[in-house]
Write a structure and sequence with these properties.
Layout: E1 5-18, H1 19-22, E2 31-43, E3 46-50, H2 58-67, E4 69-70, H3 75-79, E5 91-93, H4 99-102, E6 112-116, H5 117-127, H6 142-154, E7 157-160, E8 164-168, E9 171-177, E10 183-190, E11 200-203, H7 212-215, H8 234-247, E12 255-256, E13 269-271, E14 277-282
Parallel strand pairs: 3-5, 5-6, 6-7, 11-12
Antiparallel strand pairs: 1-2, 1-4, 1-14, 2-3, 8-9, 9-10, 10-11, 13-14
Helix pairs in contact: 5-6
Length: 292
């Protein structure tokens, strides 16, 4: 029995992103669409999210324009497609601190936020470095770090040190240190709540951008290929990819990268009136489909 309904919600996109960002070493292989999205998990009297997107204002807007982001929509418009309002969200799991994942904290006034302690402390350290180290701040809005610290002042921040099981029933957090970022994490949802779950999902954050990161480009000879951007190491990304796939019984289709446009080829989905996609991975008992 599925205890949670799960949707991947696109809130903006880049129409032409170099393939080399998705797949390490894929130079001169053209471009592809890159959705920007977050995940909604609803059930058992809770509404949780994985990441929050960014706010198309101030430096968030500057970063978005520099990356060619189009069709940004605010959370209240995006979440309405699955019958949720931002104030309904009780728990938010931040996979990492890049602007497109952690840049809209203020839109969720009722939520408690979870982040790896190492992710927060290392970005503070990086902010303190001299200008010649500025590559390390690629994709970062320093104001997001300050807003995260203020969540601690409000009593709405939980800094996790490593793995933590059952943050909500059947939902586990797993650290992936020194990978895409210093303190990335992924979220494992055991939707039947069993320890050895048959209905298991992993939400990778940016530990994977695409299907190729998890199974390569040759279906007859699968391999792990890391993403094209790592503050940590490609080795750690590959080992984390293997760990994530094992969490879902060896089925890479159950490891969900929100930047993967081809999720629509695997799961039911539709395009909203604003031109953004909602993809439905699971429905809890009694939940109405949002894509049919």
């Amino acid at each position: 029995m599925a205890h949670y309904s799960i949707w991947v919600m696109e809130y903006a996109h880049v129409l032409e992103q170099p393939t080399s960002l998705f797949i390490y070493g894929a130079h001169n292989q053209g471009h592809r669409k890159m959705p920007y999205g977050y995940v909604v998990i609803k059930g058992r009297g809770q509404t949780a999210m994985i990441d929050v997107g960014y706010n198309h204002a101030a430096y968030g807007e500057v970063l978005a324009q520099s990356y060619g982001v189009r069709n940004w929509q605010p959370p209240h418009a995006v979440l309405a497609e699955c019958g949720v309002a931002p104030a309904d969200v009780s728990n938010i799991f931040i996979t990492h601190s890049h602007f497109d994942h952690m840049g809209n904290l203020e839109a969720f006034p009722s939520a408690t936020f979870y982040i790896q302690e190492r992710e927060l402390s290392k970005w503070v350290w990086a902010m303190s470095l001299e200008r010649r180290f500025r590559w390390l701040m690629l994709g970062m809005d320093p104001a997001d770090i300050m807003r995260t610290v203020d969540l601690a002042r409000q009593g709405r921040l939980v800094c996790v040190d490593g793995d933590r099981d059952n943050v909500l029933p059947g939902i586990d957090l797993h650290a992936a240190f020194d990978t895409h970022t210093w303190g990335s994490m992924y979220v494992h949802v055991r939707n039947d709540l069993a320890a050895e779950s048959a209905d298991s999902w992993v939400f990778s954050g940016d530990l994977a951008y695409s299907h190729e990161n998890l199974r390569g480009t040759d279906p007859n000879d699968p391999q792990y290929i890391p993403v094209g951007l790592a503050t940590g190491s490609q080795f750690n990304l590959i080992m984390t990819a293997d760990e994530m796939v094992k969490k879902v019984g060896g089925d890479p289709h159950r490891v969900i990268p929100v930047h993967e446009e081809r999720l629509k080829d695997l799961f039911p989905s539709r395009i909203s009136k604003t031109g953004l996609r909602i993809t439905e991975l699971a429905l809890a008992n009694g939940e109405t489909s949002r894509v049919r």
